[in-house]
Write a structure and sequence with these properties.
The chain is of the alpha/beta class and 605 residues long. The chain is 46% helix and 8% strand. The chain folds into three domains: 199 residues, no CATH class; 231 residues, Rossmann fold, CATH 3.40.50; 64 residues, no CATH class. Strand 11, helix 17 and strand 12 form a beta-alpha-beta unit. The longest helix has 20 residues.
Length: 605
C-alpha cells in the first residue's frame, strides 16, 4: 500500500501540475473594465511622466520552436510537438501496460517506457546538466510601447493583463494637462524565457529599461513584477548591486503583484516528492477535487476511481515513477528558472540532493547566485529606498490552502494542510515575510494581527505598503479592485495603506471577470441600453437596465467583505439571465437526464 500511495501521489501531482501550471499568472485570457472613474481624484504633485514595465508571470511570455521541417511549436508555457505523437505513445506504452493489467503486476519495461514517453513529450524544453537549454527557443519580445502593438497583440495583452483601470488612472493623472497624452505610450512588457536563467533575464531587463527610457524620454520607470516576474526583479536588484555600482537612479517604484519573492512550498514539495498520502484523501477527496477543478460532471470522478482500481498498484507505481523521473531529469532539475520557485529555506537541502558533482558545477553556481540574490532581497529593497527613494509596494492574497481555489488539485502536496496562501504562493513569499497560521486558525500573540487573526504582518518587510486580500486566488486579474489599486499606486494617489479609505490594507477577494472582460456582460448590457442601432425593444431595455445599474453599483464598491465573492457570482448569473431576453446570452441549463442518472449512479463512488 505504501508504494501504491506514492505512485498515485506522484502521477497526479506531476502530471496535473504541468498540465495546469500556467495558472500561476496575473490573469487568464480575460480582460477587465474599470467602472469607478469617480474614484480617481485630481492630479497632485509632480506631473513628470514615468513609464511602467510589467514583468509577467509564468505562461505569459510566448516562445517558438522551429522544427527541422520549418514548422513551429509556440506557446506561453509547455511546448509539446503534437504531430504524430499518439502513435509512438501507444506503441511504447500499450503492450507493457496491458501485460501489467493481465498479470496484475508491473511489467519490467513499463517504468522505462513511461520515462521515454515523458522525455519525448518535453524534449523541446529540456535542459542539459550545465543549465543550458538543449533546443533554441525564440522568445516573443515587445521592444516598443503598448500603443505600438498590432491588433492581435494588443488584444492578447489586455486578455493577459487587464490593465484598463491602470490606463484610466494614468489618463486622469496626465491627460487633463496634455491632450496628446496616450497612457499606452508608457506601458511596456518585458518578457523572459521560462527555460532559462533568471540571472540572464535580469541582464536583459537592464537593457530593456535603457531602451524604454530612450523611447519615452522618461528618466525613471516603474517595475511591476507579477507572480514569477518576482524572480526576475529579485535577480535584477542583485545584478545592479554587483555589476552597476548599485545605481538604481532609473527606478521610480516597485509594485509586486502576488509576486514569487521566496518561491512556493507547492513547487518545493514537488522537488522534494512530498505528498499527502492519506487513503481517504487520495481515493475520494482528491479525485473529487480534480473533477471540480476541471469543471467535469461528478460521474467522471467515479469513472476515474474505477480506472485506478483496474491498474495494479505496482503498475501505477511504475507509471508514476517513470513520469516524475522524466519531468525532473528533462525539464526541472537542469533549469535555473525552476529552481527559483523553490523556497530559500529548502533550497540548500534540495540542491545538495540533486546538483552534485562536476557535471552540475555550472548550474549549481547559477542557482547559488540566485539563492544569494534572494537572501539579499530585503536588504536590496531597503537600499533602493534609503538611497534612491524607491518605495516597494506589495499586493498579496491569503486565506487559501492548495486544496482551495480553482486549481485545487495542487492540494496533493504535503504542505497544503500546513500553509496559508493564494492557492499557489505562500503568503510569506508574496508578502515578503508575513507570518501565518493555517486558514481558520488564530495566530497567538501576534504583534500586528490581521482582522481574522490568521496573520502577523509585523514580520513583513514593508507592512505600511503591503495590502492583503482574503480568500483571493492567485489569478488576481479576476478581481477588479486589485487592478484599481494598482492604477492608483502607479499614479501616486495611493501612497501607503492609510492613504485611501477606498483601499484598506485588508480586503477580500471576488471574481468579476465574466462581468468586466471585454465584450462580455457589462459591455453587452451597455449596448442594449444605448440601443444605437435600434435592435432592442423597450421591454428588453427595461429588463436589462435595472440589473446593469445594480452591477455598476456593485463594481463601484472597493470595500469588500466575506459576502463579496458570492455577491459577484450571483451578479454574473443575474445579468446573464437578464440579457437572455435579447438573445445575447442564454439561461444556463442543468445536465440532461442521462447525465443526471450517471451522476447519481457514479458520482457517489
Amino acid at each position: 500500500m505504501k508504494k501504491f500511495k506514492k505512485v498515485i501521489s506522484i502521477i497526479l501531482a506531476a502530471l496535473m501540475t504541468f498540465s495546469a501550471i500556467g495558472v500561476v499568472s496575473f490573469a487568464e485570457d480575460d480582460a477587465a473594465v474599470d467602472y469607478t472613474s469617480q474614484l480617481i481624484s485630481a492630479a497632485t504633485g509632480s506631473d513628470e511622466k514615468v513609464a511602467t514595465i510589467i514583468l509577467p508571470g509564468i505562461g505569459q511570455s510566448d516562445s517558438t520552436y522551429v522544427k527541422e521541417d520549418g514548422s513551429t511549436v509556440s506557446g506561453g508555457l509547455i511546448l509539446i510537438d503534437s504531430d504524430g505523437i499518439a502513435g509512438p505513445i501507444i506503441t511504447k506504452l500499450a503492450w507493457p501496460l496491458l501485460k501489467s493489467i493481465g498479470t496484475r503486476s508491473a511489467d519490467p519495461k513499463l517504468q522505462s517506457a513511461v520515462y521515454d514517453v515523458i522525455s519525448d513529450l518535453f524534449y523541446i524544453q529540456a535542459s542539459d546538466k550545465d543549465g543550458t537549454a538543449r533546443e533554441e527557443l525564440i522568445l516573443t519580445r515587445y521592444p516598443y510601447a503598448l500603443s505600438q502593438y498590432n491588433e492581435d497583440d494588443h488584444g492578447w495583452f489586455y486578455r493577459m493583463f487587464p490593465m484598463e483601470p491602470v490606463v484610466e488612472a494614468m489618463a486622469a493623472k496626465y491627460g487633463a494637462s496634455d491632450p496628446s497624452y496616450n497612457p499606452e505610450d508608457y506601458i511596456y512588457l518585458s518578457t523572459f524565457q521560462l527555460i532559462a536563467n533568471p540571472h540572464d533575464s535580469a541582464r536583459e531587463l537592464k537593457d530593456f529599461i535603457a531602451m524604454v527610457k530612450e523611447q519615452t524620454g522618461c528618466t525613471k520607470v516603474n517595475l511591476v513584477p507579477i507572480s514569477l516576474g518576482g524572480t526576475i526583479m529579485t535577480s535584477y536588484l542583485q545584478l545592479v548591486q554587483e555589476e552597476y555600482n548599485g545605481d538604481f537612479s532609473d527606478i521610480n517604484k516597485i509594485i509586486n503583484i502576488v509576486a514569487c519573492l521566496n518561491g512556493t512550498d507547492l513547487f518545493s514539495d514537488f522537488f522534494d516528492r512530498k505528498w499527502n498520502l492519506a487513503d481517504e484523501f487520495l481515493y475520494d477527496e482528491y479525485i473529487d477535487l480534480i473533477v471540480e477543478a476541471n469543471g467535469m460532471e461528478p460521474y467522471m470522478g467515479g469513472l476515474i476511481k474505477i480506472a485506478l482500481k483496474i491498474i495494479p498498484k505496482e503498475a501505477l507505481y511504475a507509471i508514476l515513477t517513470g513520469a516524475i523521473e522524466g519531468l525532473l531529469d528533462n525539464m526541472l532539475v537542469n533549469c535555473p528558472q525552476f529552481w527559483a520557485m523553490v523556497t530559500k529555506e529548502r533550497y540548500e537541502g534540495l540542491a545538495d540532493r540533486y546538483l552534485v558533482g562536476e557535471e552540475y558545477a555550472a548550474l549549481r553556481a547559477e542557482t547559488d547566485w540566485f539563492q544569494n540574490a534572494r537572501m539579499n532581497l530585503v536588504d536590496n529593497l531597503n537600499y533602493v529606498k534609503d538611497n534612491y527613494g524607491v518605495v516597494t509596494y506589495t499586493v498579496s492574497a491569503y486565506g487559501l490552502q492548495f486544496t482551495d481555489g480553482e486549481y485545487n488539485f495542487f492540494g496533493i502536496v504535503d504542505s497544503s494542510a500546513k500553509t496559508n496562501s493564494d492557492g499557489i504562493i505562500n503568503i510569506s513569499s508574496a508578502a515578503l515575510g508575513a507570518s501565518y497560521v493555517v486558514p481558520g486558525a488564530k495566530y497567538e500573540n501576534a504583534v500586528m494581527p490581521s482582522p481574522d487573526g490568521e496573520l502577523d504582518i509585523s514580520t513583513c518587510a514593508f507592512p505600511d505598503t503591503t495590502w492583503f486580500f482574503k480568500n483571493q486566488h492567485h489569478e488576481v486579474g479576476r478581481n477588479d479592485v486589485i487592478l484599481k489599486l494598482l492604477g492608483q499606486i502607479l499614479v501616486g494617489e495611493v501612497t501607503d495603506v492609510n492613504s485611501s479609505a477606498n483601499f484598506p490594507q485588508f480586503n477580500y477577494g471576488r471574481v468579476t471577470r465574466n462581468l468586466t472582460r471585454d465584450g462580455w456582460l457589462m459591455d453587452q448590457a451597455a449596448e442594449v441600453i444605448a440601443n444605437e442601432e435600434g435592435l432592442y425593444t423597450q421591454e428588453q431595455i427595461d429588463t436589462v437596465k435595472p440589473v446593469y445599474e445594480k452591477a455598476v453599483a456593485m463594481l463601484n464598491k472597493t470595500l469588500l467583505d466575506e459576502k463579496s465573492a458570492a455577491e459577484a457570482e450571483a451578479m454574473v448569473k443575474e445579468l446573464n439571465d437578464a440579457l437572455a431576453c435579447t438573445g445575447l446570452t442564454s439561461v444556463e441549463a442543468g445536465p440532461d437526464f442521462f447525465t443526471q442518472v450517471l451522476n447519481k449512479v457514479l458520482g457517489s463512488i
